[in-house]
Design brief:
Length: 89
């Protein structure tokens, strides 16, 4: 039950992160409550990762967001493996 919740939370977080990426492409007011909520959830983790890992730029494209998406996917995979081993599958 807890592992299912954690998996669901990671999935929600990844979708919120995608929304964060999309919001950064458009000139949207940072005073919007939804933007503040999304930024407050994402930036502490994302900026922490960027302090550790080097920027991932190809030409004018910043691919650094893939760091967090990869980490989320790895954590989801690990949770799924743990859940399967507990369930005997």
């Amino acid at each position: 039950m807890l592992l299912d919740f954690l998996g669901f939370a990671l999935q929600c977080y990844s979708w919120i992160f995608v929304a964060y990426i999309l919001l950064n492409w458009f000139p949207i007011s940072r005073d919007n409550p939804i933007v503040k909520f999304i930024t407050g959830l994402i930036e502490p983790v994302y900026l922490g990762i960027l302090k550790i890992l080097p920027p991932l730029r190809i030409g004018m494209f910043d691919l650094s967001p893939f760091y967090l998406l990869i980490i989320i996917n790895v954590l989801s995979f690990v949770l799924e493996r743990i859940r399967n081993s507990i369930a005997g599958g």
